Fold this protein.
Amino acid sequence: MDFKPNEFFLGFTEFIVILLPGSAMVTILLAMEAQHPAWFNTSNTIGQPLYCYALEELYAPIFWVSFVFAAFGFGYYLGSVAGGMDVVYDIIRRQIYPYRENLEEQIKKPKKEKIEKAKKLSREQKKIHLKRLKSSKLSDEVVEEFWEKYRSNPLRKVLHSFFNLKLELKLDQNYVSAKHLMDSEAKPATERDNTFKWALCILDTWYPSVAEQVNRAMAISKFFRSLVLVVALIIIFQWIGLLTGLPTWPAILLLLFSFREYIVQRIKSTKLAYQSIVTLFYAPPELQGGKKNEPES
């Protein structure tokens, strides 16, 4: 039987993305139950905190099986809720790793607002002008001039320093090349509106060993994304008095650095996916692992 790296990686992904954050959440709930048994109605029903059954010979198997199932449930829920932070990621990514289309949007923004506020234009005329503005191409000189002003902003430099530990900004060209490859495909491609999903689909299909590296970075990113939510809940529970006995400042530091690692790993995975697609596309056949098999239609 042939072994594919991503077959083992699926279990690794579930462990990192689901089980670890879910286990942390269940542990927090057990700590809260131990500190406030009356609120959970366990003092009158079982007579002792739930965590005490973890080491009892008779009840330990039941406790740990229940713990794993609860961790899976909470892990899936945390991952779903934490997915809303991807909007924040996109905002930060535009500041520290902008694509050319992001810069063009900023350049065209004043003209767009002027068209939208124009009283002499009808609604249909505004749609036509906005469509033309969106499809218009800007010269490299205009983009470069705006880019010099954009990256000289001191706040952006501080933001980039925090997330990447370097006081420099770089315009990501791998995304532009990957998007060009996606748009130039003769056959219909899945997720045409999402270059990253298209690139990951190609890597999963034809280059599983490369896709494993991208998926690993994505899994770590999702783990820290869920961890941000877990730590935020810890701080909230401490603030309202549900969780006591723990200092708040370590949780705040953990929240800050977990969020940083989420952003860093997410950028790392997307950059790796785009770079791999572009490199493999222009690489000679012997470096691509031979002729690629076309997927069945």
About this structure: Residues 100-167 form one domain.
